[in-house]
Amino acid sequence: MNHDVFICHSSKDRTIANAICSTLEQNRIRCWIAPRDVLPGTDYGQSIIEAIAGSALTVLVFSDSSNHSPHVKREIERTVSHGIPILPFRVDDVIPSPSLEYFISDAHWLDAITPPMEQHLLHLVGTVRLLLGRADASSTVESPTADVPAPLPVPVTTGQLPVGSASTAVRLPSWWRWAALAAAIIVTLAVVGVLVLGRNDGGAGASGATSSSGAPTSSASGTTPSTPDGPSARAAQLGQAITLTGIDPATTAAVTVTKVVDPTTATDGISSPSPGSRFLAVEITIKNAGTAAYEETPANCARLVDGSGRGYDTETVLSVAAGPVFDTSVRLRPGEQATGYVVFDIPTSAEAAYVQFALDSGVADDSGAWALPAP
């Protein structure tokens, strides 16, 4: 088995699916996700079936899109037929359709509807470890991106076991429950202290609070991002570097958007823009500014926004005339850098306004925006 987890998702939820994949793999949980892991020249459907059969757990990105996707339904059917547990990760407040409810009604549910998404992703890591039987080993596993403790196993939200799992209930060790109680007491005392201090200074602290970063962020749900405004938005011009921080504060990278080729053409022999659209390529340089190895899929981190505020995710194109595209996964030691293109498919009439970039598959709060020159 070359992977632990199969990530089942609708193509419309690619951004959050990639974020899940990135977070799990940073915690050394091997994932299989389409289209990244479908080898060129192989049968797509066969690759999916083999990947499901070779996994120990399926994480379902449950959304309105996946709820109505016939492909997702087939993948879940195959998962159940192989007796593989299913862990639904709900990102939309929707009720399962009858065809999906039949298969996942008895499964654990992890809700990730309310922000921040980072908290839900770390909860997912702990739950996946627990279901894979790695709770005892989690304290010895180091994050590949920083020398910080790996997240502790997190209790699941219901007392049910996932579909296809054993009937024995999972119990957390007693020391964990005592630690959780102590943490809750500390948080309560901290909140009381903040309230008292705020009352003593007339509430100035509360009224003057501002966000640490006004950078535009790429939404996992695909909503239109805000336009950068002012220095706090972490805005830059072509050729200027912005040092970005990931979900883990120890992960930092200096990112520079260096060139835009609009339009460009695919040279892989299989890719072409959708009708009425064109390919636009953006060259980006990423330098590891941290102290630990940094691994990322750059195409998952970038997003293009046009003059009307509409956002576009990258397209999977193996090669373009503009120059070499980034590999699926880029791993950099401290001080190393890599340069490559990411490709977007945008309407012919659209005018590209700026490019956004955020670490950890675009879900990190810290992001940069590079203004693009008018054509």
TrEMBL record:
This is Uncharacterized protein DUF4352. Keywords: Membrane, Signal, Transmembrane, Transmembrane helix. It comes from Humibacillus xanthopallidus. One of its GO terms (biological process) is signal transduction. Residues 1-121 form the TIR domain. PROSITE patterns: TIR. The chain crosses the membrane at residues 175-197. The keyword Signal applies. Pfam families: DUF4352, TIR_2. Residues 203-234 are annotated as: Disordered. Gene3D superfamilies: 2.60.40.1240, Toll/interleukin-1 receptor homology (TIR) domain (3.40.50.10140). Residues 207-233 have a biased composition (Low complexity). The keyword Transmembrane applies. Coiled coil: none annotated.
